[in-house]
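pinned: reference chain
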Amino acid sequence: MNNDSDLQIAGDILEVTHLLQPAREHPATVADFAGLAREIAANRAEWQHLVEYDATSRWYHRLRTGPGYEVWLLSWVPGQGSGRHDHGPSSGVLTVLDGELTEHGTRGTLALGTGSQRVFAPGYAHEVVNDSLDGAVSLHIYFPGLTEMPMHRCTPAQPESVPV
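pinned: its structure tokens
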């Protein structure tokens, strides 16, 4: 008899969609925040009219706040990137709402299409880039709310990022 759970087999709660619950009024867990992001993504009328594209810098808009968290909407023109950074003491959920983004992190490079989600813990360093030829839109939920975003640099002697 196989006693492996769905989560042990998949290794990532976001890959086991039947275990994900709808968002609660006051999210408290990573799964709750991922559910909130999916709920917002599905309600295009809430965010689509707000999106702007700026060729000189990434555009962002705080969409909402709640007890202990905040939700940001970002747009990316082709070639725009975040630079390598972490989110200080905040955990987060990144959800691609439109287009494609590429995440470069300690686990390698991941192509993120519309509907893709990534979760990260405090101190997780990554860079997000729009490598496509079209604009992209993403949703970012930080808990607790984002208070710092330390930038990192990589050197040939130290391939892992180090704070700047």
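why pinned: The helical segments are 6-10, 30-42, 44-47. The radius of gyration is 16 Å.
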